Amino acid sequence: MHCISLPSSHLLLHSPAKTTLKLACHVSPRMFFNDSATNNNSGSTNGFSLIKNVSKLLWGASLPPGILISTVRTAWTSTWQIMMSQLAPSDPSGAYTRPFSKFRLNPTAATTKLHLYVGLPCPWAHRTLIVRALKGLEEAVPVSVAGHGLDGSWEFKDVPDKDNDILVPTMDRVNRCRNLKEVYRLRKGGYDGRATVPMLWDVEKKEVVCNESYDIIEFFNSGLNELAQHPGLDLSPVELKEEIEEWNRVIYPNVNNGVYRCGFAQSQEAYDVAVSGLFSTLDRIDDHLGSSRYLCGDRLTLADICLFTTLIRFDLVYNVLFKCTKKKLFEYTNLHAYMRDIYQIPKVAATCNFLEIMDGYYRMLFPLNPGSIRPVMPSVSEHEFLSRPSKRESMSSVGKRVQHVL
């Protein structure tokens, strides 16, 4: 699982359909009325004022004629379908089908000089940051954090870290590339496919080691213990592997990918199926967590990490933008407390940059939010609220096991 960069894990996809992008760029009305509008705010204001004046002259206070509305609607629907076909490939029913990861992990082929590339909005990349932090691999596996570019690609930029409390976008700290696509092209033989995050890079061989998130977190959990500051922390113990896999088989299609299947559905039928599966699964998990601190009992596992990165984005993004509106996560008593419990584990909160997450979805997923307006952050998603005691440690026979290991 991974995020890709728009023009087509957002979510941000590289698309070869450049003509589609040109079409999207040419719909700005100010280009037709005022060339200076592209250079200053007053020009933009004058351009839109002219549009309003022309509209009043033609139609007065009434709506535009029905034929204009239907024509614009038809044109927008066609354009939307073109963009969505690149952003979110679908099957004949209109259901979103996530592309497979191109580069799978071969641990024996990797050197110990590794570099991690991530994007903060992406939940798949987020899981690698959390496992890296919990295992204490920050020095062993340095990270470059890509931000969202104006064209939807993952690009590198130097953002001042004012308080050092959370991760922010950075420059490419190892290859000095401008964007992630350039990094992929550095590999032997080049690469012109989708530039996805997370991506693990072999610094010595200049090669992509892996861009499949679950491969990476399993590798971070057990494959680099000789370099980890917390080698004793095992997020996938042998005795729980089968249970972890069972939870992943439920959570991945219905929750992790389920929210995308809701947001990227291209038919009512596809949306109805996806949203039903999502909320029935959340109901089931909430009920389970009423008597279990974590998914697999007392111990935090990789299954919890994978669920957490979707839950932390739920009220911020998915509830609104992806039409997952049946319930807010806050309405699930056990799930929300469980999410806060994990958020409060040392180092986890530092991986959660909420403004970057919201910008990555609301401002870059143009087909879903053409106005690029970022809504106000829900109060239940603010750090102060998430830091309230979850009281879930009382459910565990080992208390704050993870915190003690760290």
From TrEMBL:
Protein name: GST C-terminal domain-containing protein
Domain GST C-terminal: 210-379
GO cellular component, one term: cytoplasm
UniProt cross-references to InterPro entries, sorted A to Z: Glutathione-S-Trfase_C-like, Glutathione-S-Trfase_C_sf, Glutathione_S-Trfase, Glutathione_S-Trfase_N, GST_Omega-like_C, GST_Omega/GSH, Thioredoxin-like_sf
CDD domains: GST_C_Omega_like (cd03190)
PROSITE patterns associated with the record: GST_CTER
UniProt GO MF annotations: glutathione transferase activity
Pfam families: GST_C_2, GST_N_2
